[in-house]
Write a structure and sequence with these properties.
Distance between the termini: 33 Å
Strand content: under 5%
Number of helices: 15
Radius of gyration: 23 Å
Helix content: over 70%
Strand order of the largest sheet: 1-3-2
Length: 282
């Protein structure tokens, strides 16, 4: 067994922080001595290590606690989740180091590239393969031809703004490989329509709840259903970051608010954004 002082010396975490983690139920001692001192065994130390991995990404303690207490997640699942997060961070750091190296060489251009030219071509090919004839017709009418649309897609995807958006997508999926794989897997137009219809039905039901406490069972149940459908639609094990990003857009983007509110009623986007945040930040 180790004391708070020994754990602090071993991990570099202050005794005060360890006491606080105990107070909020995030990292509780294995037992206490007769004198009332906190004692920790090797298993507790492993738990602390997992908590510190999550803290590397500035994840709020409340969210870490929710993950650690999730009965559906075992030790290996948590480690796999953390490994994916660390790989994304590693890729980001490597890109930043490469950019600094370029600056030191005299090239002051920062490189925000997430997907290279070959990968962008793969994304385009996957997108077109998944389109039905009606969808292709829409792009042809707008751009004049699929070739013109391709030129626009490739040029736009290479911009810094879009590459930063790609970085978010990679973060949602856990790795660049998983994000690319998701673009290659087609649900088929009929299945996509079914998903969109189901999401639409969820939103209609949620619109009828406007004014109700977002923490009520009825509202949380609808967001829980949305979570389930989103995981299937986007082929993700965890859609928390994606859903919170949607909530952010719904609560702050006036253009998005106007468009969605015109379908589901005034105030719907703000209410749904609040409901999503309440569900995932519990």
């Amino acid at each position: 067994m180790m004391t708070v002082k020994e754990i602090a010396e071993l991990t570099g975490i202050s005794a005060r922080t360890l006491h606080y983690y105990d107070e909020i139920g995030l990292f509780v001692p294995t037992s206490k001595s007769e004198a009332g001192y906190r004692l920790y065994d090797d298993k507790a130390l492993e738990t602390l290590q997992q908590i510190l991995f999550f803290r590397e990404f500035d994840i709020p303690l409340k969210e870490i606690k929710a993950v650690m207490e999730n009965p559906d997640l075992d030790r290996n699942q948590i480690l796999q989740m953390q490994r994916k997060m660390l790989m994304v961070k590693k890729e980001r750091i490597e890109r930043l180091i490469a950019s600094i190296d370029d600056i030191l060489k005299g090239d002051n251009r920062m490189d925000f590239t997430v997907f290279d030219e070959t990968e962008i071509h793969t994304m385009y090919d996957s997108l077109v393969e998944q389109m039905n004839d009606e969808q292709k017709k829409i792009f042809i009418e707008h751009y004049g031809s699929l070739e013109s649309f391709k030129e626009h897609f490739l040029k736009n995807a290479a911009t810094e703004k879009v590459q930063k958006s790609f970085a978010k997508i990679v973060e949602w999926y856990g790795s660049k490989e998983s994000a690319l794989e998701a673009t290659k897997t087609s649900h088929g137009s009929e299945v996509m329509t079914a998903y969109q219809k189901r999401i639409g039905n969820i939103q209609k039901k949620l619109a009828s709840k406007i004014g109700m406490d977002v923490n009520s069972f009825e509202v949380r149940e609808l967001i829980g259903e949305y979570d389930f459908v989103a995981k299937q639609l986007y082929q993700m094990d965890d859609v928390t970051k994606l859903m919170l990003e949607i909530a952010k857009v719904y609560r702050s983007d006036s253009e998005a608010k106007a468009g969605v509110d015109s379908v589901y009623g005034t105030g719907f986007t703000s209410y749904m954004g609040e409901a999503i945040e309440a569900f995932y930040n519990r």
